[in-house]
Design brief:
5 helices; elongated; mainly alpha; single chain; 196 residues
């Protein structure tokens, strides 16, 4: 059998037009993905900065608003909170140890595929203090305000909680759906290796 060779006529104008369209689509897609990654990175930094402030102002304001003779109620609440946290963390560790041990290792190509695109810029917004520092400070100031009945510090804690409420309602909560839209495809890409 003899295959008849087909002639391909080169038309530089048409070929350049097709290549130009293809290149435009690729670059537009890459720019959109990089823009979404930039928004995700900035939002993550803002959320990481805000979490210690949420803990500080909400807990301080809540403890300061307790009546004067509520020390036993507070100690029972703290014991219940920490006890449930320890139990939940232990159960999560046990389940994760069992489940993760059975997962297959991703291939090297899959591990490197998600690292090809980066955000346009990287801004570091470190939190003012750590979560445990915020928790200890909140308990200290909350109990101090409750015992000394300091109106200035109580007003500061309540107004700080109002500022955090405003930040959550106007910036972080509306931002979360866009962060999930950027994160879920990456999770789906990694979860694809779990399916048979």
């Amino acid at each position: 059998m003899h295959l008849r060779s087909q002639r391909y006529e080169v038309n530089p104008q048409t070929d350049c037009r097709y290549f130009s369209r293809y290149l435009t689509r690729v670059l537009r897609t890459r720019c959109v993905i990089r823009l979404l990654l930039t928004i995700k990175q900035l939002g993550g930094q803002l959320i990481g900065f805000t979490i210690p402030l949420i803990i500080l102002f909400y807990i301080t304001s809540g403890i300061a608003s307790l009546p004067k003779n509520s020390g036993s109620l507070l100690s029972k609440t703290v014991a219940l909170s920490y006890g449930s946290t320890i139990i939940a963390g232990s159960l999560a560790f046990i389940v994760a140890s069992i489940v993760i041990a059975g997962l297959p290792e991703p291939t090297a190509a899959a591990a490197n595929a998600s690292d090809t695109l980066t955000s346009f810029m990287t801004i570091e917004i470190p939190p003012l203090f750590g979560v445990m520092t915020a928790l200890a400070t909140a308990f200290l100031f909350g109990m101090g305000i409750s015992i000394t009945n300091s109106n200035g510090l109580r007003k500061l804690a309540d107004e700080g909680r109002g500022v955090i409420d405003l930040l959550l309602a106007k910036v972080i909560i509306p931002f979360l759906p866009s962060t999930l839209q950027v994160s879920l495809p990456k999770w789906r890409q990694k979860a694809r290796y779990l399916l048979p």
